[in-house]
Structure formats: C-alpha cells, structure tokens
Amino acid sequence: MSDPHVLGPGVLPTPFTADEIRDASGSGKTIRIRVEEPDGVTFERINRFSRCDDEGATLERWRVAPGGGVDGDVVSGRVTWLELQGHAAFPADTTMLSDETLELPIGRLECLRYDTRDPDETDAAVETFWFARAYPGMPVRFESPTPAGVVRTTVVAVEVVR
Asked: What's the pLDDT score for residue 162?
C-alpha cells in the first residue's frame, strides 16, 4: 500500500492527507489570517470553507476592512481536498523538512517546517511554511521573500463547525 502523504515521485510527503484535511474541516471552517508586509502594513484575511462534502468544499476568501467588514471582492470557488493537499507537495531536491515548535495566537504548536528554494534563483531565496500537526490544512505560518523584504502570514484563529 502506498503512503497517502506522498503524491508522486520527487516530492516530499505532505503534512496531511486529503482525508485528514477534510475531517479537520467539519461541515465548515473559518480561518483568520494576519498578513504582515515588509513596509509595515498589516491586514487580515479570511478563508471560509462551506458546503463541505467527501470531495471538497466551497472556499471563499476576502480581505478584512479596518471596521471588520469585507474590503474588496470576495473570491469564491470550489476546491477539492486533494488539491489542498497538493499545495504542500514540495520538491524533495529543493526543500528541507524539519520539526519546529511555534508560539502563535492560536497556541504553542508542534509544526512541520518546509524550507523551499527556487532552483532558478541565484540568491537562494527561501519560502518557509509551518504546518501545525493540530490543524490539518493550510500552513499556520508562511514567509515569502520579495524584493522589498519578507511577507509573513500567520493564522490567528480557526473556527470549525462540526
């Protein structure tokens, strides 16, 4: 039997299977995310899963306005649990995997850390993803280099409807 964490040759095992992501999403899930840009601008985003079924869910995403409402458009579309798992299928030859504990607004979390580098970048720019074992799904922290500096996203709240 093959490992459901491995989606193909040349990629590291994903932190979660599609089934684990589905099970952790219940009948709906809302994730609040803080985004910190290199220029000091900070804002929040929402990812909301609804209409969950065995194959996937509807994912709605939006930026939170300063007063708490929606800032801009709500982007909505159908995603499958396997597609979401695939977002964490990193190339084995350009990714280092390690364990790390983080203190985040949602608690002290044991995480799998994936440091990925772009093989075409001469300066070895690294994107880093931390996946909390307690929260199957998206990374609880993500850092991405840009010419202006590092953009950091951090999950600040998760609400699951059972």
From this structure: 85
